[in-house]
From TrEMBL:
InterPro entries linked to this entry: ENaC
GO molecular function term, any single one: ligand-gated sodium channel activity
Cellular component terms per the entry's GO annotation: plasma membrane
Protein name per its UniProtKB record: Sodium channel protein Nach
Taxonomy, superkingdom: Eukaryota
Length: 432
């Protein structure tokens, strides 16, 4: 009876997660991806320039288009008034006439149409680099952003192969003075996320960010500054990604306490349903390089829009046979939460049951900040030479210690353990 009871409990709880060590080396944990996004989604200057250069119908003025462009972020970010829908439908006709795709429209109007507009200086492991060596432009739900150490989507690799080879020298002055087309391929073409072997301020990533407060035109947040998303390098940044805000004229220090969870070989003997997790090579998600619960949930939302509205969002890599959603799809997109239940989502074609990863990295963080002042004497670092820090911010992201926490997912019991536990509970005889 004891054996049966133990087995039944084991069958319900076959896997356990325990803290194996609080002294794991930080170089065993990849550095996370860092994605920076201007809170301002639409540049006022770019919107005015575009509205003045479009071919317009007789009844539409450039000012009408200029006002309509302020509304375009609402496509995936909220409920839209009927009056605004009418404006966006007219705008859709105009951009179709001018041969402008929705992705081109969002990218052109973004304050981050080039990462140089957002990032002034970059330093990695205390060495200065051109920012285009470290950051690449990415499109996510909140807009066009710039990402460091980004490995989430497959289609970002193609541009790296076109770049020239960097000389062997690692001299910082040489790297800073390299022309635009001459980038550090060692960084852009790394096959796995970057790592660090030290901890503390300025031992990892330091960037000088700039915000044009006079160019704000359309924002979903009643503030000015930059959103910073920090997550696993293989996760696509989304609205549920850990984020912090960097205000203009501040210095922000984000200290990470990395955590690693790994699984023993015995876990693989169980089915995903039994262990309630997937290994990275068990599930493939479209253009994603690696499976994760986060990516799976993002993909499920894309599939929902694809199945119900017949299109994919502009910020997601285009799928064969599907068009990009536009402003005529607003009614379908905004009513999806009301029309679909959880059961509908699970039974949807190509739907995947999203489970956590069996092995993953996490980055709990702490934030400290202060006001950035141009009157404080600096120590002569080239990072601050010949740069105007008005409305700029300094962002420092680093590991806060040389050690990390390591978790182990393991089989809770095997047959030897079960029998051993039963036998140890058997009453012992006393000899008198």
């Amino acid at each position: 009876m004891l054996v049966i009871t133990a087995y039944r409990w084991y069958a319900r709880n076959p896997v356990v997660t325990v803290i194996e060590s609080t002294q794991g080396a930080i170089w065993d944990v990849p550095f996370p991806a860092v994605t920076v996004c201007d809170i301002n989604v639409i540049s006022k200057k770019a919107a005015r320039s575009l509205s003045n250069n479009l071919t317009l119908p007789p009844h539409v003025t450039p000012d009408y288009v200029f006002k309509a462009l302020k509304l375009i972020p609402l496509l995936f970010l909220g409920t839209i008034k009927e009056k605004d829908k009418e404006q966006l439908n007219i705008l859709q006709d105009i951009i179709d006439t001018n041969g402008i795709t929705l992705k081109t429209l969002f990218t052109t109007l973004s304050p981050t149409s080039s990462c140089d507009n957002l990032i002034q200086r970059c330093m990695w492991k205390n060495i200065m680099y051109r920012c285009d060596q470290l950051f690449q432009q990415v499109t996510i739900k909140v807009g066009t952003c710039c990402s460091f150490n980004y490995f989430a989507i497959d289609d970002l690799d193609s541009h790296a192969s076109k770049l020239s080879t960097l000389p062997e020298s690692r001299d910082a002055s040489l790297i800073v003075s390299l022309p635009f087309h001459y980038r550090n391929l060692d960084l852009l073409q790394m096959s796995t996320p970057r790592r660090v072997a030290s901890c503390g301020y300025q031992t990892a990533l330091t960037v000088l960010l700039k915000v044009d407060v006079d160019d704000y035109y359309s924002s979903g947040i009643a503030s000015q500054g930059i959103l910073v998303f920090i997550d696993n390098a293989y996760n696509i940044p989304d609205q549920d990604t850990p984020a912090r805000m960097v205000s203009p004229s501040t210095e922000v220090l984000i200290a990470l306490a990395p955590e690693r969870t790994y699984s023993t070989s015995g876990i693989k003997a169980f089915t995903p349903e039994q262990r309630q997790c997937y290994f990275h090579n068990e599930v493939t998600l479209a253009n994603f390089k690696q499976y994760s619960f986060h990516n799976c949930m993002v993909f499920q939302r894309i599939l929902t829009i694809q199945s119900e509205c017949g299109c994919v969002p502009w910020f997601f890599p285009e799928q064969d046979g599907y068009r990009v959603c536009n402003f005529r799809d607003i009614d379908c997109i905004e009513t999806l939460p009301e029309r679909l239940s959880i059961k509908d989502l699970v039974n949807m074609p190509r739907s995947i049951r999203c489970l956590p990863e069996c092995e993953h990295y996490d980055y709990p963080l702490e934030v400290a900040m202060g006001k950035l002042s141009s009157k404080v004497p600096l120590n002569g670092l080239p990072f601050f030479e010949n740069v105007n820090i008005e409305n700029s911010s300094v962002l420092n992201i680093f590991f806060n210690d040389l050690v990390s926490t390591r978790y182990r997912r393991d089989v809770y019991l095997n047959w030897q353990n079960i029998l051993g536990n039963v036998l140890t509970t058997k009453p012992r005889c006393k000899h008198i």
